[in-house]
């Protein structure tokens, strides 16, 4: 099937990530999309540097964005320049030329989305913007397609990683805002001019987009209430904690009988809520629908490859939807029927994971030596251990061991030998352990 | 635009929920889908009872499933009978008749998915099954469409609410399995014969589906390793806790160089992980992709309306994808362009939420009376309060109050009056508080 030709505007962090992911996972993506998606042109500021870093594989690199949006061979334009201009002009030109557009530009969508979507509608063109909110979390898709049954009641999200990192650090370490901001800047989590992030403007851009797709209203960024975290003190974070709350910078949009709330501000939320425990640069969005109840979506909200994940998902979506033939629908099993794999399912003995082992042993010398010798002989190493005191009047003690990763068949062999020890009574309890890191 | 006619097989919990949601949110769903989606036929066991409960609005109720799948006016058949037969025969018959199918039947998909998808492929028909895994959480869509850029590394999920409820209760209350199971049965969270849930079979059905779409392999339910929670003791839950872990029944599927792991079993996971804190009947699925990193999806995994949420989302998807015209694509703002709403954005003064107020006051009689009088006069009621001891050598104390929901303009008025009190020094700190319940 004919490949889809993509033109990139921008090859910075997200542009580079997009190219990298498309190249690295080309086979996997083609198995899913049913055709190759390849970047054939890219417009950058520094052509020489981009050629050195990303040249080859038939990629034409230019410093003229107009050349990309006007090129007759380009099917989809991906706008990753950021900011309002020239992004807006180039996107509108791409649409005028009948090219579909994918963008990660939240400011552009929040401020000029109404104009852009109207132009796209006129031309029968798609403008996809999953990467504009929540980085790699498919939150636009979840609300726009996954929850179509629902009357959405409200959306509340941690949608700016920089401020969530700062708030997490202020709480963890009891440090004041200024000091943590400096640390975030040193780590590259905050920009030299951090205003957009810390004053809530970036979050308000994203919230404006979420509000529009949740309630079916136009983009109204100018009506968003925006309050940042720069005035927040560590005392208030501590008092909130004492009362059972965490402070997060939330974007909240809610439907009421009087109208729609659209607001970004530091917010106390009960510490037991899952979203209160989203730490560091991670993002999470809570969506309340009348049928589904509360659902939560969590993941990395920024960074080269997480954002590229959303950009490429949009490319696959546009590829599928732009072609009317049934062969380009979402395949039942995510991959095209002729691209299914015959990788074998592993028998349990060959599974590698960590283990919790509990055994009941007589409290006498040498027991632990016998057990640990058996584990060592089978190459099983111990990560943690508890030996409980014997209960009053009992001769036996519980020994609990956590192992490092090992093959299940080795653990089974070890258990058989441990159970055969005279000093161990009854069966060994075996549970598996996953770090999910 | 011509309405889509839906035929339901089954009007039990999920079928009833689907009909209810489609009727209640008809306007919202039409605004999204661009055309009406209406249930015109339903096959049930007890026709009389169903007529009493759901009759009217042009709904034809029959006890003959064949009449639904063979009716020429039906566009989409929704199978909500559960079990393998007659579900399988009816679904295959619907496909043979050229009708798209939506199903919530995990056992059917896990065991006969390969046959069903092959038949659907031959006829150019769609079979959608979002409701088969994770209830209302759009997890199939997230993996199949949202993460297409990624080489998926592993998926780990709490995908059975009954067992998660039992494990949460065992841990919270230190009770043994049998006792909590009996409680779960009394509450309707566990069935009279709980085998499917507690032995992990239901989770293995769902995991089989997740594995297939994550890795592009056929359904291989017979190769899934399945171990339930019925032998789990409260002692092991407590020991795990001491070591910093929670025990959850996880479905895990992982890609390794040797093959694919496919296993359901009780699993220790670090207590600090978000997924370790998913309690009660809630479900959550963690997906690790090479580009996006770890993403988490959380929500209700069962119940009439959460499951109906997924069924209806599939109906909207099939409606959109089955028609080739651009007008039926996913609209940019989730709702059709001519169905956007002009609901106003509320000014902040009209926003109703709870508040955290911190004020610094001189430690003298009557201060608290003055402050609480001001709040009462403005109709603001207090939910919690802390008054801190004055620090050594200081005359002032911090007073922190949490309010119940109130209008922001009333809080602003109260703050103005409180700041005017001679006994209060400096500005009142105001933060908003959301329960997100």
From the structure above, extract its key features.
437 residues; alpha/beta; Rossmann fold; Dihydrodipicolinate Reductase, domain 2; Alpha-Beta Plaits; 3 domains; six-stranded parallel beta sheet; six-stranded mixed beta sheet; 17 strands; 25% strand; globular; homoserine dehydrogenase activity (chains A, B)
Largest interface: A-B, 140 and 140 residues
Query: Tell me, what's the shape of chain A?
Result: globular
How many separate domains make up the residues of chain A?
3
The main sheet of chain A comes to: 6 strands, parallel
Number of helices of chain A: 15
Question: Spatial order of the strands in the main sheet of chain A?
Answer: 3-2-1-4-5-6
CATH fold name of the largest domain in chain A: Rossmann fold
- Cα(first) to Cα(last) distance of chain A is 39 Å
By CATH's scheme, which homologous superfamily of the largest domain in chain A applies?
NAD(P)-binding Rossmann-like Domain
Uncertain stretches of 5 or more adjacent residues of chain A: none
Which second-level CATH architecture of the largest domain in chain A applies? Answer: 3-Layer(aba) Sandwich
**Radius of gyration of chain A from the CA trace?**
27 Å
Strand element count of chain A: 17
